[in-house]
Amino acid sequence: MKKVMIDMDNVLTDTDFFEIIEEYVGEKIDFDNVGFYLQDVLGDKKEDFFNKFKYMNLYKKSTLLPDCYEVLKKLNEHYEIYICTDYVWKEIKEFAGDNLKNKYEFLYRELDFINPKNFIFACNKSLINCDIKIDDKIENILDAKTKILFTAYHNKKISDKELKDKEIIRVNNWNELGNLLLEEYVNNRKKILLKKI
Ligand SMILES: [Mg+2]
């Protein structure tokens, strides 16, 4: 079975962080132009924000993205699935343990068909050896044989040319991801069967 590494934030779920920040600033924010770290939108208010929200649970209300549960459950029959997620806040490292706990509880609650032993909490994902890697951050998938970029607010502007040059496939949602990986599974099975004939 091929091993698949799947990221959590902005791949499995969009977290409550968007709402928490909008609530703090009191207005709607166009996150597509903020960059990867949502908190960068806060500028010099960042310290005040983290003082108030250091115990925040980003996964209290959040749910899986549409079709994620059904597609992942199907993929889980044909692939060895690992969920790999970073948990250390760069601004409040001392509270990373709370974030890890919140992430674990979310995964345990939402993905009842995946063995919790397949949850990996790691900041450096290049340490994980998987055939297929799915993430919304390019740096996290470059060492995989099959590199899949999941569309998120901060990566929409990456050009098709850059993705092609880096041999990265973009998927926009869980149905696209499911079709791609189930097709790859069927093609691989065909190749293996043809070799046997
Ligand atoms: Mg992510």
Structure description:
37% of the residues lie in helices and 13% in strands. The model has no long low-confidence stretch (mean pLDDT 93). The protein is built from 6 helices and 6 strands. The protein starts with a strand and ends with a helix. It is globular. Helix 3 runs parallel beside helix 6 (174-196). The structure holds magnesium ion. Magnesium ion (MG) is lined by residues 7, 9-11, 135-137.
Give the arrangement of secondary structure elements:
Elements: E1 3-6, H1 17-25, H2 46-53, H3 68-78, E2 80-85, H4 96-110, E3 119-121, E4 132-135, E5 146-150, H5 160-165, E6 168-171, H6 174-196
Parallel strand pairs: 1-2, 1-4, 2-3, 4-5, 5-6
Helix pairs in contact: 3-6
The structure holds magnesium ion (MG).
Mean pLDDT: 93
CATH structural class? Alpha Beta
**Structural domains: how many:** 1
Calculate Rg over CA atoms. Answer: 18 Å
Query: Strand percentage, roughly?
Result: 5-15%
Uncertain stretches of 5 or more adjacent residues: none
SSE sequence, one letter per element? EHHHEHEEEHEH
Distance between the termini: 21 Å
- CATH homologous superfamily classification: HAD superfamily/HAD-like
Task: Record the strand order, biggest sheet.
Answer: 3-2-1-4-5-6
Query: What's the CATH topology label?
Result: Rossmann fold
The CATH architecture classification is 3-Layer(aba) Sandwich
Structural class: alpha/beta
Give the cofactors and ligands.
Answer: magnesium ion
Largest sheet report: 6 strands, parallel
How large is the count of helical segments? 6
The coarse overall form would be globular
Per DSSP E runs of 2 or more residues, the count of β-strands stands at: 6
Helix share, percent = 25-40%
